[in-house]
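To: structure desk
From: M.T.
Subject: fold request, one chain
Message: Could you run this one when you get a chance? Sequence is below, nothing fancy, just the single chain.
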Amino acid sequence: MKAGFGVANITPRVGVQLYGFGPYLNRCGIAVRDKLEARAAAFESDGKRVVIVGCDLCVINGDIVAKARQLIRAAHPELEDKDILVNASHTHSGPSLSVDYGGWGYPDPPYAILLPRRITRAACAALDALEDVTYSLAIVPCEHIGLNRVYDRDAPPLEDVLKPDWTPAKPELTDTQCRVMKFTRPDGSMAGFIAHFGCHPVVCCQQCRYIHGDYPAVAIHELMREFPGSVGVFLQGAEGDVNSGCVHKPEPESMLALDVFAGRFANAVRRGLAEAKEIDDLTVRSASKIAHFTPDEGFTDEEMDKIYAENEALFDAPDATDSDSKLRMAAVNLVGIERMREIMRRGEQPGTSGEVHGVRLGPCAILGSPFETMQGIRRDVDARAKAPIPLVTSLCNDTLGYASDREAAKLETKGARYGAKMVPLINGRLPLKQIHDELAQALLELDGELFA
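Reply: Done. Structure tokens follow.
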């Protein structure tokens, strides 16, 4: 096998709006705490080439990925679109890019135009650096980082989670392992590595305005300094319902916790690099397709009218003010329903279609979708996949909201409603009726193609 790695700086200018944590917060970056990067890994075996790019971004839009693929293929015409996978880490301390999530921050047009060119720079650097490597692999414990926000308390007391032995109430409903792939040159030096793990990088809060890639990027940068000449790529796993143990804390506490959680993740990856065993299977393959997901037809015009009226009524209160978070959330719902109605007026169905994407690296199958995938779907795919090591990966090549597992979708907790019902409205789409089964099946079909 040959592998190559490349890096491009994708840090935005100070002042751009940051992504996440609530509606119409106007969070703008005030300084760079840790640079953002697009870090790429390219692979070649038996004449087949693929390239994977991990970006320190909350989300990445399909049009940006389409432009990057066009530019990469212009430089490397041997590649097809399915040979190029772009993943977002989901840091909430990076620039807003999605116009779909109304109110969650607005994209900076110059940055959005520049970004695909920077992604291309990282990908082409990796492809141009292809060299003979030894491929090694380890699966190691990665605990004391995440909690399931649908079932557990959201953000326990900080003094608890900073204890080295802190464990959430239901660790089995989180990702507790890190998958580490290591690529070593003939002289024994490390060319690069991939770390795959599922957990929202939201250690920092809505008060934080420093630009950084949250705990995954801080950890990857620490390891890259430890192994000079190497590049680390982080791939975000099933994180739709897994928050970091620290979230929604004041800025001083958040910044302290950032280094603690980055240290925990770095220790897990470090252990994986030390324990990685050489792999004999050096197969490289790729597959992708457009999957269609069934909208909830029970979400009728009458239901939308009811939601619209309930939200609009909040603005009629004598003491209504735009500083009220409930009022700002109501505005998001109103805008989302108006977008959905406009789609319907054009005779279109506001359902969801998106690319599912698979890359095989020996025994590992990276099974990516544009959703924030929840743990139940990941467990389902893991149990049924042909791949010895399936890697369900969120936020690949686009952003289409949450893929709620069937158990979470039935619950009436705030976290469950947000993913299954509220986010589709924010995006101007209908909720998805069978997303667990349909996404799991689409990923398993890719898995079957990769391991046919």
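Reply (cont.): The two ends are 20 Å apart (CA to CA). Let me know if you need anything else for the meeting.
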